[in-house]
Amino acid sequence: MAPVRFIVTGLGSWGPGWAELIQQQDGVELAAVVEPMDDRRQAVVEARGLTPDQAYSDLQTALDHVETDAVLVVTPPNTHLDVARIAFAAQKPVLMEKPLAASMDDARALVELAEETGNLLIVSQNYRYRPPMQAVRKLLQDGVIGDILHIQANCQEDMRLFYEATNFRYLMPHPHIIDMTIHHWDLLRYLTGHEVDTVYATSWNIPDSPYQTDAACAIILKLDDGTPVLYEGSSATHRDRTSWSSWWEFEGTNGRIWTDGGVGDPHVDVVHLHMYGEDPVVVENITVAESDRHGSLLAFVSALQGGELPAHTGRDNLNSLATVMACVESVEQGRIVSVGERLG
Questions:
Q1: Could you write out the three-class secondary structure of the chain?
Q2: Which long-range contacts (CB under 8 A, 24 or more apart) does 158-167 make?
Q3: How confident is the model at residue 260 (pLDDT cuts 50, 70, 90)?
Q4: I need a labelling partner for 245 at 20 to 30 A (CA). Which of 6, 51, 262, 264 fits?
């Protein structure tokens, strides 16, 4: 079977990594890259050994000159609708970096446009493909700890270790909520099989943070079965860092599950199981064929080639994004917000 050819558009923080991943992955091919900033584009051209006819400053020109099967969008979230509109007009399916969009209106428009034009739209919710999260999900889906009574999650990161001083995230409103909790709400939905009903959120900034708005938050969520969830997160922490996936704890009627470790490498989070009355044990992580972004990429490719549609479609991802936007509204209005109302 011929490799699936990709145009990668957006070469900021994550785009170069996606370009490298595609070149290293069997069954796919890097057709071209797109980036309006000359220095970023040239850096990827040199790093990936591309020719001048594989690099463009805008997506439309790239589509006009390059044979491709799909577009991978890694541009800032507020551009996603406009970029996807160009791809869909050319009848190209889209793999989209999270978040799906910067607003629910844009997200709904994206999903509707994909469906109207008959194009596949998949959001790369790559945390689902991490072996520890697969292990946690299996324990929960098998009902090992009984009914879930309570969930906690904590994500402490310091983005100063990873992002340059000019990174657009430092100017984002509600940066941790918008940039990071999209992963954690998607994981929450994936691990439990439940949707989020309501949220109550508050936020604050870290005094020496490079962020211009609040980089830390505390959030109480209620799932659609009534289960309470307590979340704390920071993107400019002075505390010990956690796994990017968060450190999770699930308290059940028969036992509890929690994760720790994985600092700097969320593929090696440690999953613990404590059945009440017994000694805690470490649960072996579940091996997946391809983890993280590799998993998202190959799930997208498989769907293009007639395989099973991955769960993290644009339509499904509206639920994760609606939870994010409900948190933003809760911070701004100081009240409990219904996620269902955000879905429209």
A1: CCCEEEEEECCCCCHHHHHHHHHHCCCEEEEEEECCCHHHHHHHHHHHCCCHHHEECCHHHHHHHCCCCEEEECCCHHHHHHHHHHHHHCCCCEEEECCCCCCHHHHHHHHHHHHHHCCCEEEECHHHHCHHHHHHHHHHHCCCCCCEEEEEEEEECEHHHCCCCCCHHHHCCCHHHHHHHHHHHHHHHHHHCCCEEEEEEEEECCCCCCCCCCCEEEEEEEECCCCEEEEEEECECCCCCCCCCCEEEEEECCEEEEEECCCCCHHHCEEEEEECCCCCEEECCCCCCCCHHHHHHHHHHHHHCCCCCCCCEHHHHHHHHHHHHHHHHHHHHCCCEEHHHHHC
A2: 158/235, 158/236, 158/237, 158/238, 158/241, 159/210, 159/235, 159/236, 160/210, 160/236, 162/13, 163/13, 165/210, 167/12, 167/13
A3: very high
A4: 6
Domains (ranges, CATH) in the chain? Answer: 4-119 (3.40.50.720), 127-288+322-343 (3.30.360.10)
pTM of the model: 0.92
User: Residue 24: CA atoms inside 13 Å, Cβ hemisphere, count?
Assistant: 10
Q: Widest CA span of the chain, in angstroms? A: 66
Supply 102's token pair. Answer: 């910067």
Percent of the chain past pLDDT 90, that is, above it, reads 88
Q: Please tell me the predicted confidence (pLDDT) of residue 155.
A: 98
